[in-house]
Predict the 3D structure of the following.
Amino acid sequence: MKRLGIFSAIITIVVVILAALSFQLMRAQQPVHRASRTNNVLTIYNWGEYIDPSLVKKFEKQTGYQVNYVTFDSNEAMYTKVKQGGTAYDIAVPSDYMVDKMRQEGLLEPLDLNKIPNVKYYDPEYMNLAFDPNNHYSLPYFWGTLGIAYNDQRVKRSEIQEWNDLWSDKWNGKIMLTDSARDMLGVALASDNQSVNTTSSMALNVAAKKLMALAPNTQAILADEIMNYMVSGESSLAVVYSGQAAEMAAQNPHIKYVIPKGIGNMWVDNLVIPKTVANKPAAYAFLNFMSDPRNAAQNAEWVGYSTPNKGALKYLPKSLTQDREWYPTSEQLKGKEVYRNLSPYWTQQYNDLWLQVKMHQ
């Protein structure tokens, strides 16, 4: 009996030791469970106010994923963060030329379109563009054009049909220019029937001189502040993106928008999966969710930009989809180009020439 008691004591000690070891092992395994929980998180890296918040909630409710929404204010800022790594962005929203740059540098995951059945609803007009042939890395999110916003109380539509109309003497001190080397040199290039992606020193120098000649008509060169000037009526004309013009028109019904004939810029913002992705299933679920026509239509109404989702058009007001400045015809888009990613050398050339133009104002 005594030996049995000793044996029982030994067994008890062993059990206690095993229990302690088991507890320590469970503690060591807890981070794995936390990692598992983080797989329920989808981190989206997007421009500010560039998605309907109610759609985010709808996605969370339908899928069980929790969305972590992080914003950036420029393509370059987004590019730098993704390239540095460290933060697991599952979805990002770069513009056309930045998609080109990121795919060339291996910063994007190739898309398996079989996992995005709703891809069939996209308009072919906005697929397979030069910056991402066959959409191996991106899906179009919103699109638009670079054009001219004008106040119809001071400017007649017939007076601004082409880019060259900006150089008319009648607009002395009345035009706001967007502070963008690529956009404004592109305007000057387009006005001379040159590609907005030109890499010709001669053509660029001619374009810069032409912009300097626009100085008498230039009221100011600004960025986002242009909206305030146009909405308040302090300015008559402005070179802006269609989305900006839509925001202006929502606040001032006298603001109209025109897409100049001929060569010009058509922009496309895109959904991509960066190499930083930590939750691919959630990323694909989100891409398919946003490609659903009803969701795309709801998002387009909230954001105010044009959707590339052809299936979404029937869910949008006809007053919107039949407005040819926001949803132009193929004929209107003839000659329009998306920006290509330029080499560092040519990017610097554009920036240097634009600085010279601004110093001349």
Summary: Strands lie at 41-47, 66-72, 91-92, 139-151, 175-178, 218-222, 237-241, 255-258, 264-271, 336-337.
